[in-house]
Amino acid sequence: MIGEWLDIGWVDEIPVRGSRTVQVTGGDDIAVFRTGDGKVFALADRCPHKGGRLSQGIVHGGAVACPLHNWRIALDTGEALGEDKGCTPVIPVKVSGGRVLLCRTSTMKAAA
Amino acid sequence: MEHQTPFPDTPFSKRHEHLVVIGNGMAGCRAVEELIARDPTRYRVTIFGAEPHVNYNRIMLSPVLAGEKTFEQIVINDHAWYATNTIELVTSDPVQAIDRAAKTVTARSGLTVSYDRLLIATGSDPFIIPVPGKDLPGVISFRDMADVDHMLDAAGKGGAAVVIGGGLLGLEAAHGLTLRGMRVTVIHLMPTLMERQLDEAAGWLLKSALESRGQVILTEANTAEIVGDTHVEGVLLKDGTLIPASLVVMAVGIRPSVALARDAGLEIGRGIKVDDHMVTSDPSILAVGECVEHDGNVYGLVAPLWDMCRALADGLTDSHSGYRGSVTSTKLKVAGLDVFSAGDFSGGAGAEDIVLRDASRGIYKRVVVKDDRIVGAVLYGDTTDGGWYFDLLKRAEDIAPIRDMLIFGQSFASGGGTADPKAAVAALSDDAEICGCNGVTKGKVVACIGAGNATLDAVRATCKASASCGSCTGLVETLLVVTLGDEYSGERSVKTMCKCTSFGHDDVRREIVAQGMRSIPEVMQKMSWSTPDGCSSCRPALNYYLLCALPGDYKDDQQSRYVNERVHANIQKDGTYSVVPRMWGGLTNPRELRAIADVVEKYDAPMVKVTGGQRLDIFGIKKEDLPAVWADLNAAGMVSGHAYGKSLRTVKTCVGSDWCRFGTQDSTGLGVKVERMTWGSWMPHKFKIAVSGCPRNCAEATIKDFGVVCVDSGYELSVGGNGGIKVRATDFLCKVATEEEAMHYCAAFIQLYREEARYLERTAPWIERIGVAYIRERIADDPEGRDALAARFLFSQQFTQDDPWAARAAGEHREQHTPMARFTPIDQTREMA
């Protein structure tokens, strides 16, 4: 049986206030973020505005600024903050024993 | 051992159920205490302990190490307590097996005891990182009294110690060893000390305080090996640093001690799984403390343990109450410094931060609010109100009515009807100090406002209130409102850097230099930032200001740079990158052109374009391919063109006197020399230079940031041009006679721009703002000042003229170019189902 969680690696492989990507064949990347206080979040790597790679943005507080037009996206809900409207799919993620685990179903759905 | 033989069958033992407790630590004994308080006669109790001691307070080992307490002072239950309550204590004899069928436990000595109920309270084991040398004598953990004795022995001989782990235990060990006279280095893998309890700002304050006491704290340091032949001699880091030490304390963390329970076949997750009554998967066996997992949670703090013990004792006495999990807070004194944290302080959507920083007293307070409820708090330096915030958090109290005063603490926020901040400020006496940094009283501020200073900036400039750390900005603004009423416009003449601060760029920059600040968290603390780690506007600006102020000394913060500067290429709208190798002065040769052509074919680049800066731009390169592309270009002698940076871009030239019938000087040669001097420098914004060989100006030097137009008698220098949205021709600076002078003036001008323009301000708007007369005064009319500027520029250049592509091609920051993982769905439809 296939488990519900995908093990993608150690949490300290993601830079603090930074991001790494996970590639899924046939679909968009997943961006996995780590905030200044060590929390881990995952979003589809696609800004709701013009599809910018959120994984390449500046992570501050609980948000990331898209590198293309500086939209701020909340990491926990995927919602655009401030005046902007839009939402990026959130991938459930958890850290267990230092390993980062992504929800399999959501990862595959985001890739489709 | 206090017992060598199995217990005699006494009438007492036959009449009562036998409760055997594995673990004589804080959880095991507390559970027994709770049980006795409910029903002292129901169970006959036997406790097994691995250590030779009675029950002591493990949390107080740090004061014993530091010499503030003796072992006797941290004993919780002495021998008399065991005797009075007819508890059999077996010490120095750890239980090694549980036989669930026979309902017996067997200890190391062979002693076998039968039980009716068994309580496992084995606590945690220290986590030992699996590096070579971890088993050498002199490498210890910090978990029990024996470890403390080891440390005291080592400290008695003096010398150096290394503590691996910058969490609470590690810092306590480091503090104790420092007090005992050892030279201590703390190695921490993460960028922030105690990152699980503290945010970056508080972690930085803690680090500075510990460093000022003589400890060496290395963050982001990764241990490769513990070296030594027969005894530890030092610690080798992955970056090659060797730190000599005669003692190594491993304090990287703890994990639930579950081996015994696992061998007995109990259900194990991260800890021993228990229900709300602390019963394991075997109804006769209970477990409590750090070794258990309840509802998916494992706890390493004392407070949850007390709650668990209550629920456990209730269950054992048939008055089941049930444990519902604990919301934890941490209020600690780390090496004598007060820190507190509770709840969730990660921010996120809908979460707002209320931050108070008092730089002069070293205080940082942050309360995280969501939907008018406190969800988290971090306090450093003053933790008086920690309990109050934690209480509001647990009760999910609506804090809207006291929100404005919340951060000032309980006494302020609930102080008799002063919930209106204006009223509270108006009620202050004239002697009350408003600005602690500059010692300005309310009376002085009000007088200053009365004298016609009707804006914050005017008050700052006149009486200096709120002009240093800025933490009293809110108070001064309230005083403006109270004093001026409707006349106060509320507007500031100086635009603030961003919403995170009440200061403008120039103020921040001046203070960075004046106070010798060295890191982004330090600036945020000393200048009272209102957010925990800034935003995408201020972080790159601060990173640049520090880089400029501390050439060669400042450690560039990659996470505070825009993506292009982080990956040394230009992101395009489809997520691919464009790559522009440097072509000095726009010159190239067959070897470079061949290498570029090869790269285009090898990596399937869909487009190559000649840029306006006389170079070739290769489009459509995938992020993963960038290091290989750079390696290929490096092999042909090319380096990064910095086409992505707030830095020197290009030096555009025309062919000059070598070829052109109108050329007056060697404009190409000069262009190449200027580019060799200036490449690699970081600036407030992008910077373009051009050198034209005659006034026909084919290199378009008069719309560049720095332009040179050659004439028969020398070189005309001009500055501040721009060909962007708003075309601006350069202002004439001066004329010089030689190439050397032209280069010298160029270096001086760039340094003036680097030091005085605001981040993201091109030279054109900068000069419009300050006037070209000022530039002439500093560059053309002040030979000494010009020399000093040029010298500072050349000094800083020696640290930046390393090709970033070469470093990346060799493997630096490889994580930025490789995905963390790749997945290929085996069967897409099944995966989707």
TrEMBL record, chain A:
Q: Which residues are in coiled coils?
A: none
Q: Where is the Rieske domain?
A: 5-102
Pfam families per the UniProt record, alphabetical = Rieske
Q: Name one GO molecular function term.
A: metal ion binding
Q: Name one GO biological process term.
A: nitrate assimilation
UniProt cross-references to Gene3D superfamilies, sorted A to Z: Rieske [2Fe-2S] iron-sulphur domain
UniProt keyword terms in alphabetical order: 2Fe-2S, Iron, Iron-sulfur, Metal-binding, Nitrate assimilation, Oxidoreductase
Domain of life of the native organism: Bacteria
The name under which this protein is listed is: Assimilatory nitrite reductase (NAD(P)H) small subunit
